[in-house]
Amino acid sequence: MEQQNDRSSPPARLAPDTAEGHPFLRSVSSLLRSLSNRSTRSPDRTITHGPQKALNSFFEANMEEVFGIEDLPGKDNVGPAVKNKRKTSAPTSPGGCIDLTTDEPACSSAGKTPVQNPPEDEKKLSLISWNVDGLDTDNLGERARSLCSYIVLYSPDVVFLQELIPSYVLYLKKQAVSYTLIEGGEESYFTGMMLKKSRIVPYTTTKMMRNLLIAQVTFQGQELSLMTSHLESCKDNSAERMKQLRLITQKIKEAPDNVTVLFGGDTNLRDAEVAKVGLPSGVMDVWEKLGRQEHCRYTWDTKTNSNKRLPFACRCRFDRVYLRPAKREGVACLLPNHMALLGLEKLDCGRYTSDHWGVYCSFSAG
Q1: Residue 72 parent element (H or E)
Q2: Which domain holds residue 217?
Q3: Is residue 316 part of a domain?
Q4: According to the UniProt record, where is the region Disordered (predicted)?
């Protein structure tokens, strides 16, 4: 376990490439410009907590317009706080589902003229990796809505999720209809992936190994192998965790040299364990590649995140993203250019989206 650090967690970075065609996103963009003009920026150009709180308040105020949602389905899978907040609404028709990347919310009034989104950067790939802590069912509806708000804001091509439960998956399927959702299991808790339909095309059967979910896809004509996992937790399970890491690195090495491999997940790894196992040649830890930025170091931080209410402070870099660029000559080389932590602000319920921070990364083809 990494040593405790007295530095407080810095604010979340906001992706510079937010789409502005959607009416809601235009409002977000306008708010961001206003906040940017008023806020004090640190040397690494992060936005201070005050503006971030204003952004969160904006999302809360507009959540019904954007999602038109109820809390999570399945009474047995949600906590009492969610049950108390559940609202009664008319059944939602298929047309009431919200496409998170369409021009106009599907639930908006008829007759409005859709606004065309500007074309996305064809050479840029973005992803979010997040352990959503579905096993903690308290305030799960509000926390799931928060996850969706980040998907709206960042519009990632790929989302790696850990600690999903069946009711959480049902909620995501209802709301994120512009994404293909791949489940790594059906019972208890499991991993999953969300792939933006307009940008990511699965082309072979997904492999669901015991500790690793793999999807072979194409992105702008480039072949990618996407991997996510949730490795064994707790300090005493170090040997099993390193065994699982060896399995992951072996699968990365087996990928053809014309394929780019992206792994993201809750590894529960300690630095000493990674050093002992070693990463294969050509595989990079994205956080390290981007300069080991302190504001992105701790993804499980009980000093700042109070969801678990532990009697001690623990700050660890459990959630990691690994990249092995394609090695074949003539194939575009994907390299990281940005990383940020998500979910650093408390929700109205007084809790965070998860006990883990989300990890946002973007990559550009060279």
Answers
A1: none
A2: 124-365
A3: yes
A4: 1-26, 71-98
